[in-house]
Each structure stands twice: as C-alpha cells, then as structure tokens.
Design goal:
Elements: E1 6-7, E2 10-18, E3 22-29, E4 34-41, H1 49-63, E5 73-78, E6 84-88, H2 96-102, H3 107-126, E7 129-130, E8 139-144, E9 147-152, E10 159-160, H4 161-164, H5 179-182, H6 189-205, H7 215-218, H8 236-245, H9 257-267, H10 328-331, E11 343-347, E12 353-358, E13 364-366, E14 381-385, E15 397-404, E16 425-428, E17 433-442, E18 445-455, E19 458-466, H11 469-477, E20 480-481
Helix pairs in contact: 3-6, 3-9, 8-9
Length: 485
C-alpha cells in the first residue's frame, strides 16, 4: 500500500524516524507555508485502545504547555484508516543523541543544554505534568533566529501528576529512570529531576552515570562513580550537586528542577541562562526542509517517500534521505566532460549493489540497507553524499536501493523546488525496463529519478543529485547490481 501523499492538509515530504508506537514524517503546512513534523500512530497499534489513548494523551498534555523548550502540538487529525496523528514542531537540527554520536559537548555547552531541558521540564511540572522519559533521544534541537535551541519532546510516557500519584505504569529508559519509577511507585517531579541529573552527568563527564540494562537494575542502583576524570576534572561542588540530583532517596534530591540547574550553574561558576560561545552551530544543510510542495496532489500510483538507510554511526542526523535516479541515455543531450576528480567505488554490505562516485561525495556513507515504507523487512541499499542530508538540501549524492514491486510506478518522487521536469523516458537498460525523470533546474544542479524493474518482483530505485549532467551520467553508469542474472 502506498504511503499517503497528504496527511489532511499537510503534504508529506519524507520520513524523519520511527519508533515502536509511531512514525514521524516531515510535512508541509500549505495554509501557513511552514514545515511541520507529523507523528502518526503505527498501524499495528491502531486497534489497541490503551496505546491509542496514550498517543492522544501526549497531544493533550503538550497542548497545555507553552514553552520554547517544549515541543508544540499545533493540530491533530485522523487518517482514512482511523489512525490518529499529531502535527508538531519540526526540529530541523535532530536530537541530542545524534549530536553525541558525533562529538561530546564542552562544559559550557553541557550546562546550556541542561538549562534548556530543565526549563522545558519545569514548564511541564508547573502544569502538573511529568515527562518520565528524559534521555538524549527525547531532546530535540531546532533553529530559531539562527541559533540552536533545545526542546523536550516525546511525552509518550507522560502523565498528569494527580494520575501518577494514584497509578503509575512501570516504564522508562533504565539508565535514566529514577529508582522509584523503576519500582512502580507513585511519582512526583523529582523523578524527572533524577533523569535530568543523569543527563547532566552524561554531558559533563562524557559517560553515563549508570549503564542499567533493565528496570530491575535501575530500581536499586549501586554507588555512583565520581563524575571527574583526569581528562575532565570538576571541583567537589559540582560533584556534590550532581550526586544530590542522583540520590536514590528522592527526599535527598533538590526540591525542583530549577533549583538543581541553578545549583549546578553556581558550582560551575557560570550563569545557567548565558549562551556559551561558541554554542552548538546550526548545520546549514539541515535547516532546509525543502521547497514548498506543489498544490496539485499527485494522481495515480506513485512511489512513497523513502526511509533512511540505517547507519552504524550517524554523521549528524538519522533523518531520511531522498531518492534520486539517473539514466545515461536520458542525459546524453546536455552532458559535458566529467570533472577530473578522483572517483571511488562503494558497495553495500550485502554485496548486491555498487556505485562509482566522486571521492568528495564520501563524507556521509551508509551501506547497511534500508527498510522501504510499508514493508516489514530490510532490503539492500546504499547512500553516499556530501552530507547526511544531501537529498534534502543543496548537497550532492546518490541513493541506490532495492524494494518490492512487480510493475514500474506511474509516478516517481516529485521535486517542486526544481521546477518542471523533462518528459519521463521509458526504455531498456542493462538492468531491465526503466523509467527516468530528469529535473534540470534544481538548487545546486540537477536531480534525476530512475526506477528499474530488475526482477519480476523487485525494483531498483536510484536517485542522483549532482552539480552537472556529466557527473550524473557517470554516476549512473557506475551503478551495478550483482546476482540478478
């Protein structure tokens, strides 16, 4: 089944990520001319009343809070199949977990993130809401007036305090969850404070306070290792503030999140509200969600937006890459000589696919496959580009992936930012019957989509974005499949 082109009035661009209960898509609000994130309940949970209520509760809880450090819910709706969705703030700079996979933070940066996350939690607590799942993956970054701002997200486990005092579901992430939460006891705001202190320990020390693998282990944590290391020493005052925030007995913790953050800043000899210099830089490649989509909804069968190839180590964001495809013959009429740069061969981990690319493109490479939308298994794929977001901004790169399909699609992905495409070309290639669409006037060069029928039940999808047609031609000529003949 094809993925909808629209969720209500929101034009779908690409998948941002997926979890156990929901998938998040980057979409475009055509009425307000703005990118948004749309969180859709997973199809396999649509008939579960408890999960559905929990999903909708997240939207209701977030609507109660107005804070620049809490993700905003703008709208809610329901798909034709009955699944609910929430329209939320689009975090264009990814998550704290993404940032930490690239590099750690300085002490000033760590304090600033802790301060902003604390401000978001304090705003929740002032409206009698617990988060209950504070961790790096639930801290999002968004560009506001050229600066990166941290926001608290994902209240899938959040509860109103009066409800939490009577009934608490045992859940949370073991390395960050408070002991009383892991034991299933009634909770108050000090549970979130414990999780924030665990986050601060990670950001300051460069390692987690605990590495629990189960909630049972989190319910009775052992002695806390010193925060300081020879590489990152801290004065005793800082050790004491963080240790108090991580006290096993909540009566020994700071009374509020705000007091914990203020004490930490004082111990570090800093102002919690001050912005360190340099602060986390905004990646210009990530601030471009794409041009405004066409107001004309696609008709007929179309290929859905792709999911991202999985990465062993994300470069900055695990966001979705687009798909581009080229046909050598379709571009021959306006190709110049390829530039005399070094070229490199890239092969996917399964040995099924290969491609030749300019060596400078290999700044962001993923070769361990992808899971096409609406499928339940992985397929061979690779992505190579000048940045992890090469297909969403003005970068250059190539995506090659297999996906199930018994017929060529009537429509390939659209690129309204590129203007009008050339007429589709259907022909035979070395790989099989193919359809190719060329977009010659894209930001930064050209984009070409190509889909090839490589077997009776399998398609090869290729996307190339390059500065010139000559490079695109050579990349297409370098696409290889192995084991299909």
């Amino acid at each position: 089944m094809s993925i909808p082109v629209y969720f209500g009035r929101y034009a779908v661009r690409r998948r941002i990520g997926a979890g156990a209960f929901a998938t998040v898509w980057l979409a475009f609000d055509e009425h307000l001319d703005s990118p948004v994130a749309v969180k859709v309940l997973a199809e396999n949970w649509s008939e579960d009343g408890h999960v559905r209520r929990r999903f909708l509760d997240e939207g209701r809880l977030l609507r109660k809070v107005e804070s620049p450090h809490v993700v905003t819910v703008y709208d809610a709706g329901e798909l034709d199949d009955g699944r609910p969705y929430l329209v939320m703030t689009y975090a264009d700079q990814g998550t704290l977990a993404d940032r930490l996979e690239v590099a750690g933070l300085t002490t000033d940066q760590a304090l600033h993130v802790t301060d902003q996350v604390g401000a978001g939690l304090q705003a929740l607590h002032e409206r009698a809401i617990l988060h209950r799942d504070v961790k790096p993956a639930n801290v999002l970054f968004r560009t506001v007036d050229g600066r990166v701002r941290a926001m608290v997200a994902d209240l899938g486990l959040g509860k109103a305090l009066d409800v939490s005092s009577r009934l608490t579901m045992i859940a949370g992430t073991p390395s960050y969850v408070a002991p009383e939460q892991a034991r299933g006891e009634s909770l108050d705001a000090r549970a979130d404070q414990y999780s924030l202190a665990a986050l601060a320990y990670l950001l300051l020390g460069g390692r987690p306070a605990y590495e629990h693998t189960t909630l049972g282990a989190a319910s009775a944590p052992g002695p806390l290792a010193p925060l300081s290391t020879p590489d990152r020493p801290f004065p005793p005052e800082v050790e004491a503030v963080v240790a108090r925030g991580l006290a096993v007995d909540r009566e020994d913790r700071w009374p509020t999140v705000a007091e914990f953050v203020e004490a930490l800043a004082h111990a570090l000899g800093a102002d919690a509200g001050a912005v360190p210099d340099p602060w986390l830089p905004a990646d210009p490649e990530l601030t471009q969600p794409g041009a405004r989509p066409s107001l004309l909804r696609a008709e007929g069968t179309s290929l859905p937006p792709p999911a991202a190839p999985r990465r062993r180590r994300r470069v900055l964001l695990g966001a979705a890459v687009g798909l581009v495809a080229l046909a050598g013959g379709a571009l021959a009429g306006y190709a110049a000589s390829p530039s005399s740069v070094e070229w490199a061969e890239v092969t996917d981990d399964s040995g099924s696919l290969g491609v030749s690319v300019p060596a400078p493109w290999r700044r962001a490479t993923a070769t361990d496959g992808w899971r096409p939308p609406e499928t339940d298994r992985d397929f061979p794929a690779l992505s190579v580009g000048t940045t992890a977001q090469w297909a969403a901004a003005d970068g250059h790169g190539v995506f090659v992936g297999l996906l199930p399909g018994s017929d060529l699609p009537e429509q390939v992905p659209q690129h309204p930012e590129c203007g009008d495409p050339r007429e589709p070309v259907t022909n035979s290639s070395a790989h099989g019957e193919a359809v190719t669409v060329v977009y010659p006037d894209c930001p930064g060069g050209i984009t070409v989509e190509r889909v090839v029928q490589v077997t009776d039940h399998q398609l090869l999808w290729v996307q190339v974005r390059s500065a010139d047609a000559a490079t695109a031609n050579r990349v297409l000529d370098g696409v290889q499949t192995y084991g299909f003949r």
